[in-house]
């Protein structure tokens, strides 16, 4: 059932509605935290696998309330552009979501994507220790075996090694976790942007206009220790596609199929694909139109799992919307 957006906005603006939603979130989340505490005391010492299975669903109960605010309250959508080959592995492998930390709640975007892949319960973060003290959210991260660092490398290295080895030792079959990481030094400011572009020129890396090149030491350690034989992470410093390449450049290297992830139920996801079709004449017209409009189509890229990128569809020029659920991008090899 689809409601009129103006009617929903009116309902959402009512103070009693806002208080009621806050009350529901706080009470239900505290109940989840208490349940997590109980299983940590009574189940963790005897069976880590059972603990992780139960906590997987408890985490989903808590985090889905936040994704509800993003998708329903804010009426926002996320379009994910991903290689179809990688799409086959996203729900069956451990993964890392590497984002630039530009705004206070930009991490919520990562939650939405992970939920669409039915992996929300296995979400973990790598963050500073003070985050574990935040009521409700921090407590849930703690019980979900997130990794908290002091930002002192000698001690943090040991913490990373210990926690990742512990996670990989005895994690339940057919249960997978994702690490959400906001790299150190990526909070966007103009001085940092200029410093980042200077560093990129010195190291022969792409100069990003909307992102800061991350400090990768910690994430490199995670990749090394989190890679069992059946897992390949394509997240590496210096990869021009990961670090932000325009769609204009990408279309000269590979055909790109666009997957629009849409929700089907609370935790499941349905993936629809529209194959890209374009003639040489259309491609030439596309380039001419871009030159006339001087459209900057730099891909605002945050590495998501394997080779996936989250972008705002409105920021991409020449995107044809087939339906409200399907998107295709007219891109071909030259």
Automatic annotation (TrEMBL):
Molecular function terms from GO: 1-acylglycerol-3-phosphate O-acyltransferase activity
From the record, give the transmembrane residue ranges: 20-44
Region (Disordered) location: 261-291
Q: Key word Transmembrane helix present in the record?
A: yes
Q: What are the record keywords, sorted?
A: Membrane, Transmembrane, Transmembrane helix
Q: Which InterPro entries match?
A: Plipid/glycerol_acylTrfase
Q: Which residues form the Phospholipid/glycerol acyltransferase domain?
A: 95-220
Q: Which domain of life is it from?
A: Eukaryota
| GO cellular component annotations of the record | endomembrane system
Keyword Transmembrane set for record: yes
Q: For bias kind Low complexity, which ranges apply?
A: 266-279
Instruction: Output the CDD domains linked to this UniProt entry.
Output: LPLAT_LCLAT1-like (cd07990)
The record's annotation in PANTHER family points to: 1-ACYLGLYCEROL-3-PHOSPHATE ACYLTRANSFERASE-RELATED, 1-ACYLGLYCEROL-3-PHOSPHATE O-ACYLTRANSFERASE 3, ISOFORM E-RELATED
What name goes with this protein?
Answer: Phospholipid/glycerol acyltransferase domain-containing protein
Q: Give the organism the record lists.
A: Rotaria sordida
